[in-house]
Design brief:
Shape: flat
Number of domains: 2
Strand content: under 5%
Helix content: 55-70%
Distance between the termini: 33 Å
Largest sheet: 2 strands, parallel
Radius of gyration: 22 Å
Strand order of the largest sheet: 1-2
Oligomer: single chain
Amino acid sequence: MASGILRRPSTLPLFMTVMALLIIVIGGTIRIFDAGESCPDWPTCFGEVTFIVSEEEQGQWYEANPDEIDSRGADYRYSTLEIFVEWFHRLLVGIIAVPILGNMYLCHKNKGEWGRKVFLTSQVSGALLLIQAVVGALTVKFDNVDWSVALHLVLALSFTSSLIWQWLLMRRNEGDETLFPKVDQNFLLSEGKRIGLVVTTILILLIMGAWVASTAGGDYNKGCSVGLPDGWPKCNGDILPSMGGPGVLVQMIHRIGAALVGVVLIMGSLRLKESSAEADAPGIYCKCMEFATGFWLLNIFVGGLYIVLAKIDSFPEYLSLLHLVIGISSFLAAAFGYMLVKLAYPIGGEESE
């Protein structure tokens, strides 16, 4: 059975999806180590192709490039581990470019068999990877300014989603009847809009999270103070805090938005369950929405725990990575459900558009 899976053409985009998710997690790890500037130049690190750069060599590079001094001061130096994380992240992006190019070639070569949509999706994936690399360079150039970090995350999710879309298109062509049953067309149209709204709202909140984590060097994380209950669930000790500082405003927008998305997910899941029963639709759409909802509610708890366990001068950054991973999981679960709805066979038609 395993050998059969490996022989499927759809295995290639699935493999690249796993690799893309690893790249995102490594990117989150960079945030944990606060190592976004550990390779101040691009594509090299302190002018080197390796990650082994001593503190003395870092100082020499800064002397030769006075305009590239670290945002934490001219005397700040990075450990080999911190440089390695950023270097490895870039290496993975370079490695995935090889199967991406191979994927584009194979999809072009087999366009008649695999379909034009598969071919176009492979081109989109290649373009997104190229754009992502350019934005990565801009992120380094502008010292992880908030808009570049948010854009980097959006492009990473778009890239990953394009690979999942290609995998689903190819599984459809391979005759997977479990993922692509025939479903009432009215159900597909109404629930497609509902799930699409959920995907959009989750993405917006993920962007807000990137904004909170990266603006002002991450200081917005403590805009509402820390600890229980003054930092969370309250903000600076108040349920309705003063919005005098930008950190407080961003924090409250993020928190209220997360709660609203949670309500949208819960209500959407309940309505989808009712609609599925009425249309006798398969349960896979409900499962996707339930996973998205479960991940989101768990992430609200993890986000609160991040503030509760924090000290005013230090945060449990491992929870920051977990927060990112769970948030992305919620987005991908909802996006997967949306893709399944769009690719389902509508009763009385050829396919859902």
